[in-house]
């Protein structure tokens, strides 16, 4: 079973959850604003867990630094092959599928991500990343679980129309564990889920709960049975109502992201999805495995974003990649790399501010163990997602993370459209779809009321189409433009002029 399915294993995971803490699903619709609530309820976060510790230096490559090839005489990527980002660093050549999204301003690269005195154990490092803690603090709840719980003060009494979070591809319970239960479901094949629950569902039990030591447990299991039955139909219907058109890699991550795309198009009102990809523990023969993994990751993300833009959800969905740690700067004797510290994370989406964030970890200044120095605390990214992406109050992020780690300006329009505040900057977005033959959507933000001229020019600077001219109010604006066969195939430039500046995006007609 391919991309319209989850991987197997839901039954055992639910059983395990039932024996530990209550499994509940709070709802955005019933949030009343505790600690700021989640006002941007239309937004979705898809978190990709790269299991094993991704090698950051062969992902975001400092190809102009001579120390890079000296530290890695065998596995260094030749400078001529690197996909340049800013003249000093670039992506691995296997990540070419991400470059159109980078060029469109839809990829944020957080460099040197980690935390003080990083733990290099897979198990502990993963728990820290999931919980949002530091090296010395052990939390039994996940930052996502705590955040979703705090956004929903009626949790766990109110059962929403859809799960608040949905996890597939790995069995860890910590990411969605909250103080009062599990803020999501772990489910694999949606059709098998429906069959499983319906085959076991007995309806309302008419017999009384026995007054025994196990009476409360039996009552709870019946409640889980009832709730699972309701969600089975919701997930199954969404999987049947949606589809995919992107070209996903025919492996685990491609199947998982294809399923997420299907459920989103099918109408599943779930704001958080978690998926997973293994194979990043590259102690040996790294040149055989790591490029393939980066290619799969990039192609899967690109296919997913194609589907999100196709259904008009590109601005609402963001993909975050995380890994428990990076690798050492020097290669080992097995043509691989051992456990290290800082590594890049990626955030991809049409609604985010693309670019490089944080400094590149220097190769001439390492820590006492000859590992890379951390440049950005990973909790800064979590805080940015809570506040700027989901629109929660600063107090909520501080409460969830146990401290103030600041934010980065990751959102293209920090002020949510739902609260009616003017954008923080004037910006012209890349046209969608692009490249294309016919009609495409043109979107831009105006920080203040302004005169606007929107035109299309060819590579020789000749205007071939005047899209709009006039005065517009502050806010986000959308126009459609169709060359209608009057403009030849080739490269063009979409240019927006306002009194405060000129903004340009590439436009390709096929």
TrEMBL record:
Pfam families: DUF1501, Por_Secre_tail. It comes from the Bacteria. Transmembrane segments: none annotated. Residues 433-509 form the Secretion system C-terminal sorting domain. PANTHER family: BLL7424 PROTEIN, DUF1501 DOMAIN-CONTAINING PROTEIN. This is DUF1501 domain-containing protein.
């Amino acid at each position: 079973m391919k991309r319209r399915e989850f991987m197997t294993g839901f039954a055992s995971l639910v059983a395990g959850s039932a024996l530990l803490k209550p499994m509940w699903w709070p709802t955005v619709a019933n949030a009343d604003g505790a600690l700021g609530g989640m006002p941007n309820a239309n937004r979705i976060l898809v978190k990709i867990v790269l299991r094993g510790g991704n090698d950051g230096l062969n992902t975001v490559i400092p190809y102009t630094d001579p120390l890079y090839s000296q530290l890695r005489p065998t596995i260094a990527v030749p400078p001529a092959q690197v996909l340049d980002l800013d003249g000093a660093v670039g992506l691995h050549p296997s990540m070419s599928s991400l470059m159109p999204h980078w060029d469109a301003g839809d990829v944020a690269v957080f460099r040197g991500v980690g935390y003080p005195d990083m733990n290099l154990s897979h198990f502990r490092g993963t728990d820290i990343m999931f919980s949002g803690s530091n090296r010395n603090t052990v939390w039994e709840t996940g930052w996502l679980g705590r955040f979703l719980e705090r956004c929903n003060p009626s949790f766990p009494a109110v059962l929403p129309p859809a799960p608040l979070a949905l996890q597939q591809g790995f069995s860890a319970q910590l990411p969605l564990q909250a103080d009062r239960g599990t803020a999501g479901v772990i489910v694999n094949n949606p059709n098998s889920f429906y069959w499983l629950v319906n085959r076991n569902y007995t309806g309302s039990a008419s017999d009384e709960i026995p007054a025994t030591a196990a009476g409360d447990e039996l009552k709870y299991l019946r409640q889980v049975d009832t709730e699972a039955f309701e969600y089975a139909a919701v997930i199954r219907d969404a999987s049947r109502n949606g589809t995919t058109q992107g070209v996903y890699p025919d492996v685990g991550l491609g199947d998982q992201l294809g399923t997420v795309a299907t459920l989103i198009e099918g109408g599943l009102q779930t704001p958080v999805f978690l998926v997973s990809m293994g194979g990043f523990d590259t102690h040996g023969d790294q040149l055989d495995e790591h490029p393939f993994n980066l290619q799969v990751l990039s192609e899967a993300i690109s296919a997913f974003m194609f589907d999100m833009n196709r259904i008009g959800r590109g601005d609402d969905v963001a993909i975050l990649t995380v890994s428990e740690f990076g690798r050492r700067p020097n290669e080992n004797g097995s043509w691989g790399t051992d456990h290290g510290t800082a590594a890049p994370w990626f955030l991809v989406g049409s609604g985010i501010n693309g670019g490089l964030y944080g400094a590149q970890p220097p190769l001439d200044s390492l820590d006492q163990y000859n590992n890379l120095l951390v440049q950005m605390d990973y909790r800064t990214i979590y805080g940015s997602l809570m506040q700027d992406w989901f629109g929660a109050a600063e107090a909520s992020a501080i409460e969830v993370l146990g401290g103030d780690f600041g934010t980065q300006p990751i959102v293209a329009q920090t002020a949510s459209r739902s609260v009616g505040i003017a954008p923080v900057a004037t910006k012209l977005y890349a046209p969608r779809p692009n490249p294309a033959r016919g009609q495409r959507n043109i979107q831009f933000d105006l920080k203040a009321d302004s005169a606007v001229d929107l035109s299309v020019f060819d590579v020789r600077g000749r205007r071939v189409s005047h899209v709009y001219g006039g005065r517009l109010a502050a806010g986000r604006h959308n126009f459609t433009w169709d060359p209608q066969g009057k403009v030849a195939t080739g490269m063009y430039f979409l240019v927006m002029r306002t009194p405060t500046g000129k903004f340009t995006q590439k436009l390709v007609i096929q």
